[in-house]
Amino acid sequence: MRILETKELKKIYGTGETKVCALDGVDFFVEQGEFVSIVGTSGSGKSTLLHMLGGLDRPTSGEVYVDGKQIFELKDDELTIFRRRKIGFVFQSYNLIPVLNVYENIVLPIELDGNKADEEYVNQVISLLGLEPKLASLPSQLSGGQQQRVAIARALAAKPAIILADEPTGNLDSRTSQDVLSLLKVSGEKFGQTIVMITHNEEIAQLADRIIRIEDGHIMGGGKDNVISGEE
User: Fold this and answer.
1) Which helix (H) or strand (E) holds 215?
2) Which of helix, strand or coil describes residue 172?
3) Three-state secondary structure call for residue 160
4) Domains in the chain, number
5) In a domain, 163, yes or no
């Protein structure tokens, strides 16, 4: 089942001589339960693509489907609600709320949606990520690796259709990066999550089931016939 799909996705910034085509006709899809890495150098369009996939920015043209829904048909307030319910984010900078403890950070997106957390499921996530001893701690009392584990737990807690990870190990040393990414992969497998991660690190990308390469706003390949390049 296709859980994520783009069709002729384009994003253009500026006009005239300052015009930049960050994405130029990107078409690909991700199957439910896949762990996919999108690899590219700085300026390749990978961050722009992730923002489009997560509904954080609107494309110039083209379509993005998440769990069968064309997300850019939604109004801004509808898109905000859809994003909160269907998409989990893991950012390089963790984005934890400093005045909330670990547990409160993990369940915050669920509570913002007016729901109660599935305590049994959330506790499974917490246990898998080794966060039980830190539940009452504030983010400032945690190491970088621990903060990123909290961010992963928060992304998983609402049972989203897809998790988008933006350079999730960019602020971590190499050993901690491997540990965190291994936990992300194991978590995804255990809870049946679909994960799309952007990175410039080839070694980290190898942990994924499939690698998609992006260059100058075009998808260059991804190891499956379902990955189609944009306009050449």
Assistant:
1) strand 210-215
2) coil
3) coil
4) 1
5) yes
pLDDT in tens, 116-137: 889 999 999 999 999 999 999 9
Residue 232 lies in a domain: no
Tell me, what CATH number does 168's domain have? 3.40.50.300
Give the per-residue SS3 of 86-105: HEEEEECCCCCCCCCCHHHH
Domain that holds residue 153: 2-221
Tokens of residue 43, six digits: 């300026």
d(CA 150, CA 105) in angstroms, rounded, equals 8
Q: Is 131 left (phi over 0), alpha (psi -120 to 50) or beta?
A: alpha
Residue-level pLDDT at 221:
63
Task: Identify the CA nearest to 94 among candidates 137, 135, 143.
Answer: 143
Percentages of the chain per state (helix, strand, coil), in multiples of 5:
40, 25, 35
Amino acid at 222: G
Query: Which residues have CB under 8 Å from 45's CB, separation 6+?
Result: 11, 22, 23, 26, 214, 215, 216, 217, 218
pLDDT in tens, 19-53: 889 999 999 999 999 999 999 888 889 999 999 99
Give domain status of residue 228, yes or no: no
Dist CA 217 CA 232 (whole Å): 10
Instruction: Evaluate whether residue 167 is within a structural domain.
Output: yes
